[in-house]
Amino acid sequence: MTGKPENVVLLADDGTPVGLAPKATVHTTDTPLHLAFSCHVFDERGRVLVTRRALGKATWPGVWSNSFCGHPAPDEPFEQAIARRAERELGLRVRDVRPALPDFRYRAVDASGIVENEICPVFTAIAEGDPEPADDEVAEWAWVEPEALRSAVGATPFAYSPWLGWQLEAWQGEYRPA
Predict the structure, then answer these.
(1) Catalytic pick among 39, 89, 116, 118
(2) What is the mean pLDDT of residues 33-59?
């Protein structure tokens, strides 16, 4: 780590970059629209990695979600940001990063009142090994069959991040790497 604060890219409603803000200050009850990404990581057997958010997370602590999410640095390509975040959050190397839902966007309000407000393209990737996640990011993880995840989210949506449910609803065709 360089010690520099992590910045996120602020966006106009049409997705045009309009500025930067420190990540630590962006997620509030009045979160501005900003750029993010989600990634669904699959293993060689076709199972998808789900993670349970750490209990110390400011938003949606303890809920299950997609493999990981993050924010690209200014001018950082998504593929590079995804590789960086996979290593930082999951201790995992990924390959074959591909867009799955390039136009995904959402706004969600946590029970605490904190808002997620993101243009958040969704990607798939293939894992190289098993994760060794950072404790401050992930409480638990599991490899699951994609259709089993769809069924579980449908049956118990409250146990999952809202964006995971919305991403699965938007997914066209078979839920697998793009």
Answers:
(1) 118
(2) 96
